[in-house]
Amino acid sequence: MTKTIGYRGWRWKAVWWQRFFLLWTTIEAQTRYSIPEELSPGSVVGNLAKDLGLSLAEIFDRKLRVASEAGEQFFSVDAGKGELVVNDRIDREALCGQSASCVLPLQLVIENPLHLHRLEVEIKDINDNSPVFQAKELSLKIAESAAVGTRFLLETAEDLDVGCPCCLW
Description:
With 169 residues, the chain is α+β, with helices and mostly antiparallel strands. It has 2 domains: 28-124, Immunoglobulin-like (Sandwich), CATH 2.60.40.60; 129-169, no CATH class. Helix content is 24%, strand content 31%. The protein contains 4 helices and 9 strands, in the order αββααβββαββββ. The longest helix is centred in the N-terminal third of the chain and has 25 residues, at 2-26. The chain is elongated and about 85 Å long. The termini are far apart.
């Protein structure tokens, strides 16, 4: 009775390790790139051939392609150079809203044998929206007796890049 239980336990562990190593060889690595928003189409994000350790012939023969988890194809692979390039302008505010960080998860699929690589592209904000005040002009009346270094509170301005009102001193 003891031998049967021990055998079953060992067999279960062997099956688990086999599946683990199969998964390990299928999903190998994760790469992360950072780019500013509003890059023009055709801009290079990174060199996938170099980062994945593949030759240009392997990229072409094994049909390297990018699959977006977000649904839209913002990026594609230039098989001739092995580079990840931008397909369309990316507006960070439209894509991620008021979120502090904006990361697009992607999957790189390589065939024969099948390999999946997880790729993340972080979209950095550029200051393309200036703060806007409600009033065009503001008059301050400051007394002569005001101490040097006195601060005066101004109305809040809205900055669409930050997503919240800003208080300027």
